[in-house]
């Protein structure tokens, strides 16, 4: 290994500048050679689709074993903190949908390390590769039943959800247990100006803020809860309640756009209310980062590089599990899935993890107050 690093330094390269070689030159790829010496890589992942990546990676890079653990973002961070406090170096890569929490951890300077494969530096916009590498974008948007409402969404303005006709008919996964829903509420606060404009459009007057209510976004959240917002345990229950066919007056709710892929197999009729004023919800990054002082640093970087896809038009097999309608690969050279709204057509607000991070505790406390 020392000889390998010394040879690279002659050319002004580090070991980790050498990434994913073409299929016919694996033996010439210094990073693969170093990863082979390590023999394995451990990844904590928020999605079970990582097991597909595990199989593909091991086939592509024989001799390197992938150990994949499916954990929520909160579980990943808790586990990593505990391991590092105990002096245990287990995780190499983390795949999280809580970019704000990952950012907070990275700022501590001990737990996480960002790595952008060199071949991706020109393909991923700056804000999506720094301070943390974003692998794809996911959503939390207003969904409705297109079987009952085939022409258009039954809601044209988000403020309608605070009115009596939608009492106990709006669903959301409990934000106290899910960071993506906390970010949805935090974004309502950040987008108070847009919600104020939508209020004027719907009610024909300016919104009035009660004592102690700091913004129009907070007013919207409070009125949504006051209208008996229904909190469910998970998105599976939310999707079934909204999407089940044959309902006379189904609820609406904030869910994941890409879950429309299950309409055929589950018998659902989910659809996104993309035209709702001022926006249907949020689009947020799912980040792919290294554990600091990873025990298998070469294999970790090789895995990150692999998960960013190949040079094909759709990123190839490694991106196939994530190249779905309603999910957006962060690479500028890969278009949205043909059955999906393009990123410019999707009217959801972009979440800025650095901006929502300071709001997290405040929104969490507000949710506990209103439940």
Automatic annotation (TrEMBL):
Pfam families recorded: SBP_bac_11 (PF13531)
Superkingdom as given in the UniProt entry: Bacteria
Protein name: ABC transporter substrate-binding protein
Originating organism: Exilibacterium tricleocarpae
SUPFAM superfamilies xref list: Periplasmic binding protein-like II
Entry keywords, A to Z: Signal
Keyword Signal included in the entry's annotation: yes
